């Protein structure tokens, strides 16, 4: 018999996995060394758009340590292999084949044209320099609007256009709201803005990697991937490998942020080469290859029109997007803007809505999911234009939001997009955030600084958000032509000694699944936290799953574990009744014990596990097993929300931005582990703030990536970020038994507009209403200078403390 164990859910447990991860005492893909293993390196095009005239590999074949050199003609002679796209958003969506290696033309700088296989990684990379490729330049396609012109050069000539797809949602046509054009024409205030979502690189800690061993009964692939189960299915379909003969393992993976959800040409070429040679082959990319050839994120032009009454009541919202897909369709890339389509209305009661998106091909690295995938882009646009509308109406931006948001007593609430938000309390989160932030005092200080013409101005930014996460349900995804479901799988194995093994289809890459899942199982079965082992990331031990992305791990995968645990208890109940010589109806289960009601007669789930193992005294016809599994398909998305407030100090003489304070109050429903939630929020804030102030992937006029290293692509360190003040409110979800909502993307979604709103607020008096991200000192300084010039006043007088500005653009 065991003592009653206090609840685990809600406890700040240190993560089980941290000891091995932080000390490096674990297995990453690049750690794997197999007998006779060879190494693969990829020769990448230096040009963004060119015909391949010839490839001479003869010298490379003679290089030291080289075993083989392959081109597309060797690996895919019939040109039949193409990387999969799982989200054809329209029936007529253009789907050019993305080859394993380019054969006749390259379409972005970094596209693979040949591979070297050698006895060491160094020898493979050295031999790349001996390959001679003759190219014939083609004009690059870089500008989204220019790419759609009739006379624009084409990325894929066979398509006849650079348009990938055109997707529309209209509330009037869908029957979920009014007509936008009528709202715009009849409203007292109509405001239009263009916002730019710059291109970003998912700068995960561990570069992509793959090892393939063809020598066993099964072909085994280790990959630094977020999606081992999806990779297995897609690899089988892409290469024609029988799925049951392919085992995919994601060992510990050093971050992903959406950047490791793809099915990669490099993974496919490693399989092809390993099969050709009959030996294990490893590919591991360098950091510069990651920057160049791993998929990028964001990259949209957003034209937003909002209409309102004079009192601030929003009457309509119109969104027109141009989305840059890069040179090819990613696994889910075409659908990323569509995820955002349902979130532009955010937390607001917008009566009329129209969304239209044109996806465009360019000669750049393809874009695909990046932390938040469509939701950060949508939140940025609506929160920026709400600030612009507040300024237009002379209202406090918090007051304007409060006037239009869904009140807590109105939940569940069906939005203008047809989604039903199950629960929330925007008032409570905002009130707590304002209190922690000292909102009124900061507004007073801001007023004083403006009146004193202080050269360092104070800006206050607000971002209220909600998101649809926990990618599901399957029927909804099917209606959007998504190529997979939204369910997740889990199984529980009760071992004879009372320990528990959990297998989960959710494959972690830093989220803390092993800890959180152990806490859930401990509460559900009444076993100790330490007695639970979580197995994941291997399609052989965890044979079924849809993996990890879209903040779905807890609200889908975690609920599958709850459902499996319920089945374990249900299986144990008749055995407990038999052992206790009572009716099942007389039993109650709590804290790991079956107890006969009104007595102290009881038995534990561990006792039953041992009895099942022995099978000496079981009821007739009862199977000697407690093991159970479950597949959970949610009835709805999860809708976390929150309010983020940022105070930014802007030096108007230099353009330097300093984040003075940052407060966020998030509502992620029932919290399993507050420590993990805090970590997720902090990491998300860092990424969202980085988009606002630091990060941007830039191509020059020829299509060459000029930010291909961390010397050029600026990632913030802890020293560049403020200390965050975080807190939570809790409105449990009504659509899952834990009451949980997703948290993995919340910080990223909300923080970018909060920071940009703060900086614009600091310099708005100089005629500035937008600054393109990232808000570098030069861009901020130029905005102040140009805004002041547009306002018609000299810098020193209109700007207050700007100093004199010389014609070359330098502040004196």
From TrEMBL:
Residue ranges annotated for the Aldehyde oxidase/xanthine dehydrogenase a/b hammerhead domain, each copy included: 23-139
Descriptive protein name: Molybdopterin-dependent oxidoreductase
Annotated segments matching region Disordered: 791-812
Cofactor: Mo-molybdopterin cytosine dinucleotide
Pfam families according to UniProt: Ald_Xan_dh_C (PF01315), MoCoBD_1 (PF02738), MoCoBD_2 (PF20256)
The species this protein was found in: Amycolatopsis dendrobii
Alphabetic keyword roster: Molybdenum, Oxidoreductase
Molecular function as annotated in GO: iron ion binding; oxidoreductase activity
SUPFAM superfamilies named among the record's database cross-references: CO dehydrogenase molybdoprotein N-domain-like, Molybdenum cofactor-binding domain
Gly residues bias spans: 791-803
InterPro entries: Ald_Oxase/Xan_DH_a/b, Ald_Oxase/Xan_DH_a/b_sf, Ald_Oxase/xanthine_DH-like, AldOxase/xan_DH_MoCoBD1, AldOxase/xan_DH_MoCoBD2, AldOxase/xan_DH_Mopterin-bd_sf
């Amino acid at each position: 018999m065991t003592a009653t164990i206090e609840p685990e859910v809600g406890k700040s447990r240190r993560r089980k996995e941290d000891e091995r991860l932080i000390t490096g005492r674990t297995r990453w893909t690049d750690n794997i060394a197999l007998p006779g293993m060879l190494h693969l390196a990829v020769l990448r095009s230096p040009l963004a758009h060119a015909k391949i005239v010839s490839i001479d590999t003869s010298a490379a074949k003679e290089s030291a340590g080289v075993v083989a050199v392959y081109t597309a003609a060797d690996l895919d002679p019939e040109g039949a292999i193409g990387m999969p796209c799982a989200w054809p958003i329209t029936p007529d969506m253009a789907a050019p084949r993305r080859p394993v290696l380019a054969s006749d033309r390259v379409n972005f700088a970094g596209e693979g044209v040949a591979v070297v296989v050698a006895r060491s990684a160094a020898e493979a990379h050295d031999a790349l320099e001996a390959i001679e490729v003759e190219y014939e330049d083609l004009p690059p396609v870089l500008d989204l609007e220019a790419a759609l012109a009739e006379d624009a050069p084409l990325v894929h000539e066979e398509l006849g256009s650079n348009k990938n797809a055109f997707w529309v949602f209209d509330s009037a046509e869908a029957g979920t709201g009014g007509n936008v054009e009528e709202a715009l024409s009849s409203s007292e205030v109509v405001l239009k803005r263009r916002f730019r979502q710059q291109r970003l690189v998912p700068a995960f800690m561990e570069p992509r990697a793959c090892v393939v061993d063809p020598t066993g009964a099964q072909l085994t692939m280790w990959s630094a991937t977020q999606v081992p189960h999806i990779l297995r299915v897609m690899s089988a379909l892409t290469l024609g490998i029988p799925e049951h003969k392919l085992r995919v393992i994601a060992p510990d993976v050093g971050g992903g942020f959406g950047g490791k959800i793809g099915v990669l040409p490099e993974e496919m070429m490693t399989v092809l080469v390993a099969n050709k040679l009959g030996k294990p082959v490893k590919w591991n990319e360098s950091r510069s290859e990651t920057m160049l050839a791993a998929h990028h994120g964001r990259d949209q032009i957003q034209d937003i029109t909002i209409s309102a009454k004079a009192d601030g009541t929003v009457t309509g919202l119109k969104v027109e997007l141009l989305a840059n897909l890069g040179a090819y369709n990613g696994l889910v890339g075409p659908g990323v803007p569509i995820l955002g389509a349902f979130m532009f209305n955010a937390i607001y009661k917008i009566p009329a809505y129209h969304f239209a998106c044109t996806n465009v091909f360019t000669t750049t690295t393809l874009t695909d999911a990046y932390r938040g995938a469509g939701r950060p882009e949508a939140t940025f646009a609506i929160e920026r234009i709400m600030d612009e509308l507040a300024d237009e109406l002379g209202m406090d931006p918090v007051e304007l939001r409060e006037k239009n948001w869904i009140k807590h007593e109105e939940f569940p609430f069906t939005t203008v997009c047809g989604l039903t938000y199950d629960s929330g309390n925007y008032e409570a989160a905002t009130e707590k955030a304002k209190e922690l932030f000292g909102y009124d005092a900061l507004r007073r200080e801001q007023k004083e600084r403006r009146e004193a013409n202080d050269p360092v101005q104070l800006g206050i930014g607000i971002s209220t958000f909600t998101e649809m996460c926990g990618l599901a349900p399957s029927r909804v995804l099917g209606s959007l032509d998504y190529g997979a479901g939204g369910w997740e799988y889990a199984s529980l194995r009760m071992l004879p000694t009372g320990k528990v093994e959990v297998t989960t289809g959710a494959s972690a890459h830093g989220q803390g699944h092993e800890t959180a899942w152990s806490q859930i199982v401990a509460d559900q079965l009444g076993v100790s936290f330490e007695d639970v082992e979580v197995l994941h990331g291997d399609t052989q031990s965890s044979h079924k799953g849809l993996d990890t992305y879209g903040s779905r791990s807890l609200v889908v995968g975690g609920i599958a574990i709850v459902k499996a645990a319920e089945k374990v208890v249900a299986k144990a109940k008749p055995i407990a009744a038999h052992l206790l010589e009572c009716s099942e109806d007389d039993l109650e289960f709590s804290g790991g014990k079956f107890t006969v009601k009104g007595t102290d007669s009881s038995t534990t789930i561990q006792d039953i596990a041992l009895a099942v193992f022995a099978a000496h005294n079981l009821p007739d016809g009862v199977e000697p097993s407690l093991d159970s599994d479950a597949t959970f398909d949610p009835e709805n998305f999860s809708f976390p929300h929150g309010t983020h407030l940022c105070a930014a100090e802007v030096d108007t003489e230099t353009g330097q931005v300093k984040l003075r304070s940052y407060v966020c109050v998030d509502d992620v429903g029932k919290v399993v582990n507050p420590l993990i939630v805090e970590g997720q929020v902090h990491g998300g804030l860092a990424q969202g703030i980085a988009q606002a102030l630091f990060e941007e992937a830039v191509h020059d006029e020829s299509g060459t990536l000029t930010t291909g290293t961390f010397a050029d692509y600026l990632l913030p360190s802890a020293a560049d970020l403020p200390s965050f003040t975080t807190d939570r409110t809790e409105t449990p979800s009504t659509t899952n038994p834990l009451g949980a909502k997703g948290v993995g993307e919340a910080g990223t979604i909300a923080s970018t507009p909060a920071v940009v709103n703060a900086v614009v607020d600091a310099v708005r008096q100089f005629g500035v209403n937008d600054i393109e991200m990232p808000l570098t000192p030069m861009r901020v300084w130029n905005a102040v200078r140009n805004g002041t010039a547009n306002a018609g006043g000299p810098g020193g007088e209109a700007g207050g403390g700007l100093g004199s500005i010389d014609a070359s653009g330098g502040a004196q």
